[in-house]
Design brief:
The protein has about 350 residues and is of the alpha+beta class. It contains nine helices and eleven strands. Strand 8 and strand 9 form a beta hairpin. Helix 4 packs antiparallel against helix 5. The radius of gyration is 33 Å and the shape is elongated.
Length: about 350
């Protein structure tokens, strides 16, 4: 009878060990938690505390029964201190009910080591992916800046040199050169402001001061910097105030208008329309330009995506910044194809309470 009971206990323990190993080893790479494996070991073998240490002696995972206030005194010598692979060791406090056959325990301890190593590899791979993405963004930024900032600088230099020539320039040409300098300077200011805004968004340093804002006032302020024949405002009467940051909303609409004007035909105005839809006000900026290809339309807010494209101008930051500002204000921004060609950007703003 004693032998039968002992065999049954060994069989049950072997079954539990197999189940724990199967659960641990079938976890996706980087998903298993070494502390969870230690928890399984402790519950199976009645430990009160377990610690997994690396080759430097640093604790990389631990488990103990109860809360933080009930943690066993680590100064007490462990009942178990076993060497594992790659310089790892496992230390255990408590009854240490393991038995003569330690193969199952050793397998679970090795599973805890592999879980820790898998998680470390996953973290390193994730960090490498982030660094690669950052490096790509930096390379794109340098390439874009090298082209897009040089163009208005070259226009300013050439126009200024032409104005310095004595005689030979009539008033019409002089006015055109002055206009080129002025437009190029504004373009430089816009590019630099976009770069600064993008850096603030990525650093998480932008805070919105939300309050009741008039949509027609924000749209009118955003349209002031464009020629009167380039923007048509179609704002519904009696629109309620929206919950937004007045300055950020104006910048969002100005960026969308600038992008739309830049890609629209010269004689086709950009339409900025606002209407109440349910409990939100939707502001649509509609252009009749070439629009976006289907692959870009799925994610139109990728920074620097416009640079280098055929016919594209600018750093490609306008839509990315507008999306970042909307996110800060808890507003929405979606891109839709304009019927009969073009792009429509729709800003969704909650009605102020």
């Amino acid at each position: 009878v004693t032998l039968a009971i002992r065999l049954r206990i060994d069989a049950e323990r072997a079954s539990v060990e197999a189940a724990v190993l199967r659960e641990t080893l079938t976890e996706p790479s980087g998903a298993s938690d070494p502390s969870a494996v230690l928890d399984q070991i402790a519950r199976l073998y009645s430990f009160t505390r377990l610690t997994l240490r690396d080759s430097d002696g640093s604790a990389v995972a631990s488990w103990f029964a109860g809360g933080e206030s009930d943690a066993p005194d680590p100064a007490v010598a462990p009942r178990l201190d076993a060497a594992l692979v790659d310089g790892f060791r496992i230390q255990g406090w408590g009854p240490a009910v393991i038995g003569e056959d330690r193969r199952g325990f050793n397998s679970l301890a090795l599973a805890a080591v592999r879980s820790h190593q898998s998680r470390r590899i996953s973290q390193v791979a994730s960090r490498a992916g982030q660094l690669e993405a950052t490096d790509r963004a930096r390379s794109a930024l340098l390439a874009a800046v090298g082209h897009d900032l040089r163009t208005p600088l070259a226009a300013i230099s050439i126009s200024a040199a032409a104005l310095q020539v004595d005689g030979g320039i009539d008033e019409a040409d002089r006015a055109a050169l002055v206009g080129t300098i002025s437009a190029s300077a504004r373009r430089l200011e816009e590019l630099i402001a976009n770069l600064l805004d993008m850096s603030r968004l990525e650093a998480g340093q932008l805070i919105a001061n939300l309050g009741p804002v008039s949509v027609d006032g924000a749209a009118a302020s955003a349209a002031v910097s464009f020629p009167s024949d380039r923007i048509q405002l179609r704002i519904d009467d009696d629109l309620p105030l929206v919950q937004a940051d007045a300055g950020l909303l104006e910048r969002v609409l100005a960026n969308l208008m600038s992008n739309a004007v830049r890609h629209s035909p010269a004689l086709t105005p950009v339409i900025c329309a606002a209407t109440l839809v349910g409990d939100r006000v939707e502001v649509a900026v509609v252009d009749r330009g070439p629009g976006l290809p289907s692959d870009r339309l799925a994610n139109p807010f990728e920074p620097f995506a416009a640079s280098g494209e055929a016919g594209g101008t600018g750093l490609g930051l306008g839509l990315a910044i507008a999306k970042g500002f909307c996110d800060v204000m808890a507003a929405t921004l979606v891109a839709l194809p304009t019927p009969r060609g073009g792009l429509t950007m729709v800003v969704g703003l909650p009605v102020a309470k």
